[in-house]
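Final report, Chapter 2: Outcomes

The project's central promise was a pipeline that accepts a single protein chain and returns its three-dimensional structure in a standardized token representation, suitable for archiving and comparison. That pipeline is now operational. To close this chapter, we reproduce one record exactly as it appears in the project archive, with the input sequence first and the structure output second.
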Amino acid sequence: MKDEGFHHNRIRDPVHGFIHFSPLEESLIDSKEFQRLRNIRQLAMTNLVYPGAMHTRFEHSLGVMELASRAFDLLTYKNKPLIERSLDEVGLTILQGKQILRFAALLHDIGHLPFSHAAENVLPKGKKHEDVSIAIIENCFRNWLDGELFKGASDLIVQLLKKEAIPPLRLLKQLLSGQLDCDRMDYLLRDSLHCGVGYGNFDYARLLETLTVYEAPEGGLDLAVDRGGVHALEALILARYFMFSQVYCHRTRRIYDIYLEHYMHSRYLGLFEDLTKVLDYDDISLQADLRREDKPKEENQWAARILGRVNHSVVFETNDHADAKQVRTVHQIFK
């Protein structure tokens, strides 16, 4: 493994100030596969409701790498012997563990389809964007990662993107995807900033400072929070709740997701049996397709509604905690 350090290059970020990366990481960032994320909006068509929501998966992925790296450094400072022993079970040093985490953070969203989550209904049954990310790593980056880092590095990065990781890698996995992961921290802060709302703000600096680890009964390490960080953790949970209720599940925002799902299902279903074909598409290519089909015909109504911003009116709305009776009412109205 080449020890190039982690702070040779830096770029400005509106959320974290500076994001630092090594020349090796810069090589991945400059790849056409990663640069495609500049054209994948983080929040799909949320800009139709919150005009500032034009940020992309590109800066989010960089932000997750920065946050995960800060969290790992703080945890290592407080719990170095435990983390060293856990990583040693898979033959990793602290330096290698950090680099694996950083590359996994960079690559965790590389498999997103145009307009992010709303388009996932056209993937093969049971597949999500995480599966696409893994396929891209295995087909496009495996040889490069194993050559530039160390043999088997790509397999370990894939482990961190799977639903469950082996016990020695559980801590790294939880930093990337868990109940208080760096992915969640970054998207709440970033989405809140660009939407112009305050719902996603919480004291993430305090939360990072109070992260710790404990030995899990089944082996490996689990991520935890010191007593002094409980309020910061509660603020994260509330921030997520408010962002979902006020932004992500905003009724007008959701209806455009539904239009996009219908459009994608009618035009792109079956196109991605080879998951790496996703790399040929982004928001720009999809918008070009929408414009070509922006006609008032019934079969093209989804394109016309999206581009003309002609959304259905709300005829019934539940509260944030719909009970069984309200759900039945919704289904009846929908039919």
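Archive annotation: The chain is about 55% helix and 5% strand.
This record, like all others produced under the grant, will remain available to the consortium after the project formally closes.
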